[in-house]
Amino acid sequence: MDCSHVFDFKVNRLIVVFTLFLALFSVTPSLYAQEDTLKTTSAAHAEPEAEKKFNIGKFALHHVADSHSWHVIGDYYIGLPVILYTQVGFVTFNSGDFLHDDEAKVVVERYGQRFVKMHEKIYYASATANEHGQYADLDEAHHVKNARPLDISITKNTCTLLLSIVVILAVFLKVANSYKKNAGKSPKGIQSWIEPIIIFVRDDIAKPNLGHKYERFMPYLLTVFFFIWFNNMLGLVPFLPGGANLTGNTAVTVVLALLTLILTVTNGNKYYWRHIFAPDVPWWLYIVLVPVEIIGIFTKPIALAIRLFANITAGHILGLALIGLVFVFNSIYVAPVSIAFALFINVIELLVAFIQAFIFTILSALFIGMAIEEHH
Amino acid sequence: MITGSIAAIGAGLAAIGAGMGIGKIGSSAMEGIARQPEAASKIQTAMLIAAAFVEAVALFAVVVALV
């Protein structure tokens, strides 16, 4: 098959830009671990027996959370840039400087300020270490009491976000160009893969819910659909370019839901607002109905955000828990069973990735459609 | 001795509820498709949306149980 047309100039340029961007982050093997970290690791091994037991919940939650470094394989991590806003301005360094410590045991000193990382959060380090060798003050519940700088680091999720932007731009610029080039002709290459999906969004999502004004909202619906779908799929890839839990991150889903809320509210016509503030019911029912309707404006996008977050995070946790069974039973004979189940769940998650993108888009269309509906 | 959290029981109850809900949706959709095979695609879409709503409730429970 001739695929040369896929790699045209614009796409190449995007890929080069992203490769250069990634090249800025150096791969830092933890073999560089110096003497002081060796000491701290030996101190960690001296901890009580219960601490060393494999904790499946902790393992799964650690892997669905955002991270300052990107795990490649074994002891290899890609250190991502840490950007902090402190009292003396911006401070940047490579997260590899923490030597993959996540227990506040390695102190990084920059511009006279000392930082530690504990559970993927960066704190100002304490002057002296506590009895566990941690440069942080902990309360009874093991929460860190130290102050935190404003952390705007490029984390694993941010990188995945940028990567997905590059992938989506590459695909859609290519498709848009081929529509220009062979207008009126049958689709070619990647265009013939994407066209049925665009038509699916138009005919099954936009038209039934938005009526004849659907064209205005097609750009938003298509963007949201492909953004969620591509990122769900990227999250299912277990090795390097994927693996981040971007659509299972509340910050991302809340922003997406907020966009739907803004579109709904700004496009709401007089029938929509009348339905909320002056519905056709006896006046004494307004005391109950109006607050309920006002709450309803906000619960719809909140439910959208939580649905996407919970579905994707639950899928990731399920896969990790099944793989984690091998370590819980500590036996190689569990591995075939758990891998078979994990594979099965991963295939179901491929379906869920599409369904969740579809559900988010169709509900967005439904809410916007309710706001622009002419009258009952 | 049994150890664990009550949250797990709550998550289990939510799973029972969601299972019943999705089972009902699936069986009704099957009946609908059997009676009117030509409407299969429309019924499937509606079924998926309804199933997603039920599933979302179960996942809210999981999130609450995790927190």
Automatic annotation (TrEMBL), chain B:
Residues flagged as site, Reversibly protonated during proton transport: 55
Gene Ontology MF terms: lipid binding; proton-transporting ATP synthase activity, rotational mechanism
SUPFAM superfamilies: F1F0 ATP synthase subunit C (SSF81333)
A Gene Ontology cellular-component term: plasma membrane
UniProt topology in membrane: Multi-pass membrane protein
Bilayer-spanning residue ranges: 6-25, 46-66
Keywords on record: ATP synthesis, Cell membrane, CF(0), Hydrogen ion transport, Ion transport, Lipid-binding, Membrane, Transmembrane, Transmembrane helix, Transport
A Pfam family recorded for this sequence: ATP-synt_C
Residue ranges occupied by any V-ATPase proteolipid subunit C-like domain in the UniProt entry: 7-67
Membrane in keyword set: yes
Locations listed in the record: Cell membrane; Membrane
Family note: Belongs to the ATPase C chain family.
PANTHER family in the record: ATP SYNTHASE LIPID-BINDING PROTEIN, MITOCHONDRIAL (PTHR10031), ATPASE PROTEIN 9 (PTHR10031:SF0)
Known function: Key component of the F(0) channel; it plays a direct role in translocation across the membrane. A homomeric c-ring of between 10-14 subunits forms the central stalk rotor element with the F(1) delta and epsilon subunits. F(1)F(0) ATP synthase produces ATP from ADP in the presence of a proton or sodium gradient. F-type ATPases consist of two structural domains, F(1) containing the extramembraneous catalytic core and F(0) containing the membrane proton channel, linked together by a central stalk and a peripheral stalk. During catalysis, ATP synthesis in the catalytic domain of F(1) is coupled via a rotary mechanism of the central stalk subunits to proton translocation.
Protein name: ATP synthase subunit c
Native species: Pedobacter hartonius
Classification lineage: Bacteria, Pseudomonadati, Bacteroidota, Sphingobacteriia, Sphingobacteriales
